[in-house]
UniProtKB/TrEMBL annotation:
Presence of keyword Cytoplasm: yes
Pfam families the UniProt entry points to: FliT (PF05400)
Keyword Cytoplasm: yes
Chief location bin: cytoplasm
Annotated region described as Disordered, given as residue ranges: 77-105
Top-rank lineage group of the source organism: Bacteria
Protein name: Flagellar protein FliT
InterPro entries found in the cross-reference section: FliT (IPR008622)
A single BP term in Gene Ontology: bacterial-type flagellum organization
Length: 105
């Protein structure tokens, strides 16, 4: 998932995230029934630490993407508003010609 976030493959990331949530729940249930020795417990802690680091990176990338999309939406809304405000006026005036320039002088 970290690689997908770094590559900005958002649709694939969401698909993976869905599977990730299911797997985390399965691990939680399994964790209740399994007893680990000290070595396995240490390995589990190391893996969890790496997973959490990746999760922080993924969340940071997702927040940046959300902000980017928000800006794009804002620009699009401004363009739409400008078009609505000025497009009707442009349609009634007709195209500008050279005759218009000579008439105004």
């Amino acid at each position: 998932m970290n690689e997908l976030a770094n590559a900005e493959q958002w649709a694939e990331l969401i698909d993976q995230r869905t599977s990730y949530v299911v797997l985390v729940e399965q691990l939680r249930e399994l964790d209740l029934t399994v007893s680990l020795d000290a070595t396995a417990q240490q390995r589990k802690s190391e893996l969890l630490e790496r997973i959490l680091e990746h999760d922080v990176n993924i969340r940071r990338r997702l927040v940046a993407r959300r902000d980017e999309l928000g800006k794009l939406i804002e620009v699009s809304q401004r363009q739409r508003d400008l078009h609505r405000a000025y497009a009707p006026q442009q349609g009634t005036a007709g195209p500008y010609t050279e005759d218009d320039a000579t008439r105004s002088t």
